[in-house]
Design a protein that fits this description.
Chain lengths: 147, 89
């Protein structure tokens, strides 16, 4: 149970699914859209501005579904994120996501001469070139992505 | 999924399933810094599935814009842990 400025606000634990924790406050809606959670018809709880010991305030998302979500992209957009996998009501896995090999349609190439800046229906694909520093380069023109 | 009651604030209940996010945008809740919980596709006795929004500390919002899409919507004002006013639009 968490204390919300003197009052208690507590969401029941889920049975099978994922809890996306330690999102920076205000980022929950972006993550919601990024993971296209609006397409799912399972119970979802989005908590905004919840007090946290680590971050002060944080956002959190609970998804009660066994569907595989593309959680790798969160490692790029929200590096602090913690993912808890819940199975049959018990925590079975807690991890920080690893950077994915490719990012598709998440960031756009800044290079004005890149083919993706001219042709509109090309997917914006970036490849991970430096795992330690998390550097992504455009698949088409090798321009570094700005973080 | 069940969410504990709030102490001060408002609960927008019985939104049609899938309308939670639309309501969030319509009420422009992203502008506020208070604790907000959006629950989607929660099971409900009267509706099967419903969405609901709990907002802490803010009560003055333009609820009328939600009435068109969500005819069954209930708005509960909560003060000091007690239901203070409940109405439909």
């Amino acid at each position: 149970m968490m204390n919300v400025g003197g009052s208690f606000m507590h969401v029941d634990s889920i049975i099978d699914g994922v809890v996306i924790d330690h999102l920076k406050a205000g980022n929950a809606m972006k993550v919601y859209q990024l993971l296209s959670l609006d397409d799912l018809d399972c119970p979802i709880a989005i908590m905004k501005n919840v007090p946290s010991r680590q971050l002060g305030v944080k956002d959190m998302i609970k998804v009660n579904s066994k569907t595989d979500l593309n959680l790798g992209i969160l490692a790029y957009t929200n590096p602090d994120v913690t993912i808890n996998r819940i199975q049959k009501g018990e925590l079975c896995d807690k991890f920080k996501p690893e950077l994915p090999e490719t990012l598709t349609n998440i960031i756009k190439c800044d290079n004005p001469r890149c083919i993706t800046s001219i042709e509109f229906d090309i997917p914006h694909i970036f490849k991970l070139t430096n795992k330690e520093n998390g550097v992504y380069c455009c698949k088409y023109c090798d321009t570094k992505a700005k973080h | 999924m069940h969410v504990d009651s709030i102490i001060d604030g408002v609960v927008i209940d019985h939104l049609k399933a899938g309308n939670g996010m639309k309501a969030y945008k319509a009420l422009e809740l992203h502008k506020y810094n208070s604790c907000i919980i959006v629950v989607e596709n929660a099971s409900s006795k009267s509706m099967g599935l419903k969405d609901m929004i709990k907002i802490k500390d803010i009560t003055e919002l333009n609820y009328n814009i939600l009435a068109g899409d969500n005819p069954d919507m209930t708005i509960n004002f909560i003060q000091e842990g007690w239901l203070y006013k409940k109405f439909t639009l």
